[in-house]
């Protein structure tokens, strides 16, 4: 029995090690290519050790695109989208979880159904509306379509339903608290782990979004980092070392955000497994 348990745990650890390696290796290889000349990209056997051209490749990036300006635009966009999504999703999730009103279930299902629609299908009507309001080549036009997040509403609704008791809400109402006061003073502190989880998901998804930003942003001063990096790949002679150096430095903020909020993220995942 003990041998079977140890053997089973061995295979679990082996699977986790392999999975971790497969997850980390692409980032390591990206770093290696960012430190090498472009010729190393197609070398056989593949180059797996870092080189000495990280600074040189990054200098080429700075000569090609307004890297720091694009990073600033992306950071502003991601922060605004994340904050708005957290506010709307938490308020909507609170309403769907703890309030009764006509058509609640139909409305909630309708919101969830929008998750199955491919974003490419909405590209033309969304572009038409943004252009109609004069928001082309603006950061607000690039971010406005992401303010309503069906996944965020669903996650918040489920988390609030399980974590915030109806008795606590009723007690607050008996004490004379308004609905917004209940949300601010009672619900919000309880759902902080879910806030961190949703915030990381939205921030990383917005940071990596490309199609919509490429569609509405044509002014180089308004470029996000994804659009700016794509503009470097315009010739037949592609400098992969330069491009991957830009991608490497553009990934650093995502790592920082995850490290800052990983404890709350893990707390949200383990909320239901540890009493």
TrEMBL record:
InterPro entries according to UniProt: MetI-like, MetI-like_sf
A GO term for molecular function: ATP binding
Compartment annotation: Cell membrane
A biological-process GO annotation: transmembrane transport
Pfam families with a match to the protein in the record: BPD_transp_1
Keywords: ATP-binding, Cell membrane, Membrane, Nucleotide-binding, Transmembrane, Transmembrane helix, Transport
Topological category with respect to the lipid bilayer: Multi-pass membrane protein
Protein name: Sugar ABC transporter ATP-binding protein
Similarity section: Belongs to the binding-protein-dependent transport system permease family.
TM regions (residue ranges): 12-31, 67-94, 106-128, 134-155, 186-207, 240-261
GO (cellular component) term, any one: plasma membrane
ABC transmembrane type-1 domain boundaries: 71-261
PANTHER family hit by this protein: ABC TRANSPORTER PERMEASE PROTEIN MG189-RELATED-RELATED, ARABINOOLIGOSACCHARIDES TRANSPORT SYSTEM PERMEASE PROTEIN ARAQ
């Amino acid at each position: 029995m003990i041998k079977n348990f140890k053997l089973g745990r061995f295979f679990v650890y082996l699977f986790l090690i392999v999975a971790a390696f497969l997850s980390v290796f692409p980032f390591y290889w990206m770093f290696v290519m960012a430190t090498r000349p472009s010729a190393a990209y197609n070398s056989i056997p593949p180059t797996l050790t870092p080189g000495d051209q990280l600074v040189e490749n990054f200098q080429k990036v700075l000569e090609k695109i307004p890297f720091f300006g694009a990073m600033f635009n992306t950071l502003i966009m991601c922060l605004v989208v994340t904050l708005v999504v957290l506010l709307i999703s938490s308020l909507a999730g609170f309403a769907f979880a703890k309030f009764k009103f006509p058509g609640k279930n139909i409305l909630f299902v309708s919101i969830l159904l929008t998750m199955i629609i491919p974003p490419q299908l909405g590209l033309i009507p969304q572009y038409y509306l943004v252009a109609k309001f004069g928001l082309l080549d603006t950061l607000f036009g690039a971010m406005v379509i992401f303010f309503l997040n069906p996944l965020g509403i669903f996650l918040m609704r489920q988390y609030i339903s399980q974590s915030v008791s109806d008795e606590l809400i009723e007690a607050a109402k008996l004490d004379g608290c308004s609905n917004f006061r209940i949300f601010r003073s009672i619900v919000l502190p309880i759902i902080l782990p879910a806030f961190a989880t949703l915030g990381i998901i939205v921030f990383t998804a917005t940071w990596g979004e490309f199609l919509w930003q490429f569609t509405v942003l044509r002014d180089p001063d308004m470029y996000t980092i994804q659009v700016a990096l794509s503009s470097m790949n315009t010739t037949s002679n592609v400098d992969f070392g330069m491009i991957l150096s830009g991608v490497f430095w553009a990934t650093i903020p995502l790592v920082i955000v995850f490290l800052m909020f990983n404890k709350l993220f893990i707390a949200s995942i383990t909320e239901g497994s540890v009493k």
